[in-house]
Amino acid sequence: MGSLKIKKLTLIGTLLKEIIPLNKSTCDTVPIPHIMKIELTGNEIVEIPHYAFCGFYHTVSLLIQKNRITNIANTSFCGLHSLQILDISENHISSLPLGAFHCNENLLQLNISHNKILILHPGSFIQLSMIQHLDLSNNMIFSCNYRLWTTKTLLTLDISFNSLDKIPHSMLRGLTNLKVLTVSHNKIRGYSPFLFAHTPNLQELYLISEEASYLCENFRDMTYLQILDLSYTKLALNSTHQFTGAESLQKLHLRFNNLGSESLFDTQTNHSLFAGQAVLQGLYLQGNSLNNMEPGTFSSLTSLKSLDISDSEIKVLKPGLFNNLTSLTTLYLRGNPIKEPSANTLYGLHSLRTLFFEKSSVRSLPITLFNDTPHLFKLFLSENHLSTIFPGTLFPTTIHLDLSQNPLSCTCDLAWFRKWVELSNVVLMQSNKTVCSRSSFETLVNHPFLLFDPQEFCSLNVTLIVSVSLVLVIVGYMAIVVYYKRWWFRYRLYLLKLAILGYEEVEDNQQPEDYRHQLNIMFSDGDEDWVNNVMRPAVEERFPQFDSILWGDDYLHIGMYLVDAIHHALENSFKTALVISNESVEEQWFMTKIRLALEHINETKLDKVILIFKEDVEDDQLPYLVRLFLSANRPYLEWEEDEYRQDLFWAKLEKNFRSNKVINNAIPV
Q1: How far apart, in whole angstroms, are the C-alpha atoms of residue 47 and residue 19?
Q2: What is the pTM of this model?
C-alpha cells in the first residue's frame, strides 16, 4: 500500500496458500499501486475468494498457474476491470460457474488448461465480449452443454487432450469468427457433416490422433481453411471429394493414417483427392500405404512446395507422378523400399531444392535421374545400398550430398566420382560416416571415402584412351560429312520413305487430264522473271504431259472481269500454285487471289492449292490469310539456292502435282 510505482508483482514458489482481499467497501479509497502484471505461479493457493483482487483496476496480466485451486466463484476476479490475460492452468478446477468471468469484459486470453473440468459450458464465458483466445486443453471434458456461444470475438479455441467421443453439430454454434480450432487427442469416432458450418471463417483445424474417424465430406466449402491436420486418425474416406470447395487450403497433414493409393485417386472417375487445391503448399502423407500411386494424384498441385510421402511402403514411383509439381522445393521419400528408381522419377521437378531419400534400399542411381532438377541443393542418400555411382551421372554443380552409411566400393569404377567430388562445388555431409566397404581396395576398407586417391590406385589406361580418341575422330569426321551433305541425305531418305511406306491419303478420283488446265501458276508482277527463268523451264521439263498451264494473269480468260477470270481459272485447273515473296504479300491484288483460292478450297473440299515461298518472309510480315492457310497444315514449299535442297524441292513439288487430297475441314476466311 502506498508504493504507487510498483508495476509488476511476482510471488513464484513462495508456498503462498491464501489470498485475503480488501474490504470491498474500501477498495476505491485505499491507494493501491498500479500493478500491471501479477504472477503467483507455483504456490499452494486452494481458493480464489470473492473479489480477491478488488482494487487492482490497472492489472492487465494475472498468472496463477500451478497451484491447488479447486473452485472459483463468478465474482473471484471482479475488480480486475483492465484484465486482458488470465492463466489459471495446472490447477484442480473441476467446474466453472455460469458467468465465471462476467466482470472481465476486457479479457483477451484465458488459459484453463491442465485442470479437471468435466463439462464444457459456453455459459461460463458469457459477457466476455472481447475474448480472442481460450485454452481448455488437457482437462477431462467428456460432454458439452449445447448452449449458444456468445463470444463472437473468439479467434482460437483449444479443447485437445480431453475425453470427447463425439462433437455434435451444435457444439460450435455462435463461433462465427473462430479462426483456429484444436480438437486433437480426444476419442472422437466421427464428425457431424454440419459441424463446421457454424465456423465459416475457420482458417486452422487440428484433429490429430483421434479414434477411427469416418469423414463424409466434412470440409466441403470451408473456403477460408488454410491448415488442416488429420494425422494419426485412421481415416476412412467415403469419396475423393472431401476437400472440394476448400480452395484456400495451404497445408494438409494426413500422416500415419490407413490411407491407400486408391484413397487418393479414383481410377474410375480419374478424380484426385486433392483436385482443386491450387494454392496448397504443404502436403504431408508420411506413414501411409501408398505404393502404385497413379500419375494424376498430384496433377492439380501446381503451387505445392513441400511433399512428404516417406515411410509409405512405396516400391515403385510411376512415371509422371510428379509431372505438374513445378513449384515443389522439398520432397521426402525416406523410408520406402525403393530399390531401383527409374530415370524419369524426378521428371518435372524443376524447382526442387531438397530431396530426402534416406533408408530407401536404393541400389543404383540412373545416370539421368537428376537431369530435370538443376536447382537441387541438398541430397540425402544415407543408409541405402549404394556401392557405386555410374560414370556420367549428372549431379547439380553446387550440392550438399549425404552418402553416409552406404557400402561404397572404393575401386577404379568409382574413381571418376571421387575426382568429381574433389573438383566440383560439393559439400560431402557426414564425411566421417561415409566410408569404404569391404569390396574396396584392401588398404581403404572402413576408411573415409575422402581418403581414396584415384591417382594412387588407378593408373591411366593408354589403350582405352587411344581407342576412345580414334572413335571420337571418326565420329567427328562423319558428323562433318553428314552436315555438309545433309540435304543430299534428306532427299535420299525422302525417296526411300516414298518407296517403302507409300501413301495412305484419300485422293480425288479426277486426274489432271480431266481438267481444262492441268496447272494454274499465280504470282505478282515482281516475281515474273523468277517464274519464267526458274520455275517454268523445270515444270515443262518434268511435266511434258501437261499441255495446258496458265502462267499468270496474261493467260486468264479474255472477256471476263478479273475476279470472274480468277474463279474460272481456279475451277478449271487441276492444281493451283501461288508464288509468295516479300513483294507479293504487299500487293493487294495478289492477296485477293489468295482469298479466292482459299474460298475455292472450302467449296471443293480438295487440297488443290499449294504455296511456294520464293524467299524467306518474316512471320510478322505474313498476311492473315497466309497464316490461316499454314495453320490448317496446308501444303507449302520453300525455294532454296542449295543444289541438294533444290532436288528435294522439285521432288516434293512433283508429288503435290500428282493428286488432290480430300479434306474434311474448312479454312475460316
Answers
A1: 8
A2: 0.66
